């Protein structure tokens, strides 16, 4: 894990400097005092500052990243895993060659890995974590595909005056369809069926 060292007039000051460098709170680190401060002779000669080492302890997301690394290694898929901490969630992105196996059909494998990564992260965290797992912007491309599909099927429903039943989708994908057509003047949407075969219906208003 990442380690930093810092000096200060006191141990507390040195620790504060290190925390700023790491950008974390004190509960995320292990503190080792390497050298206590010394005033020296007459407070001048031989004076030494305190020196500390802070080691960043793994959090829930780190455990999730380690889990994903084990899975991708087991699948013999050479990927780079990057995390980006946001205000409400943590994004983890996979990049590399031959990511199709990790994404799966319509992102089903990626969704399964995301589900497991969230379980691992929250098992090692005292606060709720939400991880969004992506692979080279697959989710953005999938969103654009679904939005285009929504527009086409809504147009077909209006032209034929018949309800359109879409193929079964995950809850997150159904949400994209509902959001896209929420303000449509001529159609409404609802979900029907049971998981994993639950699907969106585009109906005439």
Overview features:
205 residues
Summarize the structure.
This protein is of the alpha+beta class and 205 residues long. The protein is built from six helices and nine strands, in the order E-H-E-E-H-E-E-H-H-E-H-E-H-E-E.
Major beta-sheet overview: 3 strands, antiparallel
Through-space gap between termini: 57 Å
Low-confidence stretches: none
Number of helices: 6
* Proportion of helical residues: 25-40%
Strand order of the largest sheet: 1-3-2
Give the ordered list of helices and strands: EHEEHEEHHEHEHEE
Based on Cα principal axes, name the global outline: elongated
| Spatial extent as radius of gyration | 26 Å
- Class computed from helices, strands and strand pairing: alpha+beta
**Mean pLDDT over the full residue set:** 88
Can you count the beta strands?
A: 9
Into which percentage range does the β-strand content fall? 25-35%
Overview of this protein structure:
Helix 2 (60-74) packs across helix 4 and helix 5 crosses helix 6 (171-181). The chain is α+β, with helices and mostly antiparallel strands and 205 residues long. The strands form three sheets. A three-stranded antiparallel beta sheet has the order 1-3-2, covered by helices on one side. The longest helix has 23 residues, at 138-160. Helix content is 40%, strand content 26%. It has six helices and nine strands. It is found in: Cytoplasm.
Topology of this structure?
Elements: E1 3-8, H1 11-22, E2 29-35, E3 50-56, H2 60-74, E4 79-85, E5 90-96, H3 100-103, H4 108-123, E6 131-135, H5 138-160, E7 164-165, H6 171-181, E8 187-192, E9 199-204
Parallel strand pairs: 5-6
Antiparallel strand pairs: 1-3, 2-3, 4-5, 7-9, 8-9
Helix pairs in contact: 2-4, 5-6
Function: A probable RNA chaperone. Forms a complex with KhpA which binds to cellular RNA and controls its expression. Plays a role in peptidoglycan (PG) homeostasis and cell length regulation.
Region (Jag_N domain): 5-55
Keywords: Cell shape, Cell wall biogenesis/degradation, Chaperone, Cytoplasm, RNA-binding
């Amino acid at each position: 894990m990442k380690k930093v060292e810092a000096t200060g007039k006191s141990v507390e000051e040195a620790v504060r400097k290190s925390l700023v460098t790491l950008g974390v709170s004190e509960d995320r680190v292990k503190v080792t005092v390497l050298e206590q401060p010394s005033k020296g002779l007459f407070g001048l000669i031989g004076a030494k500052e305190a020196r500390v080492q802070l080691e960043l302890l793994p959090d829930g997301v780190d455990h999730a990243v380690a889990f994903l690394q084990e899975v991708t290694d087991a699948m013999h898929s050479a990927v780079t895993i990057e995390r980006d901490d946001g205000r409400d969630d943590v994004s983890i992105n996979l990049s590399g060659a031959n990511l199709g196996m990790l994404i799966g059909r319509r992102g089903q494998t990626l969704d399964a890995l995301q589900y497991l990564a969230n379980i691992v992260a929250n098992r090692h965290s005292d606060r709720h974590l939400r991880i969004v797992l992506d692979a080279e912007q697959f989710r953005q491309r999938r969103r654009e595909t679904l939005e285009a599909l929504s527009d086409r099927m809504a147009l077909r429903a209006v032209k034929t005056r018949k309800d359109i039943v879409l193929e079964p989708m995950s809850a997150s994908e159904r949400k994209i369809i509902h959001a896209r057509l929420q303000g449509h003047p001529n159609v409404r949407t609802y979900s029907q069926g049971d998981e994993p075969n639950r699907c969106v219906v585009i109906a005439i208003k």
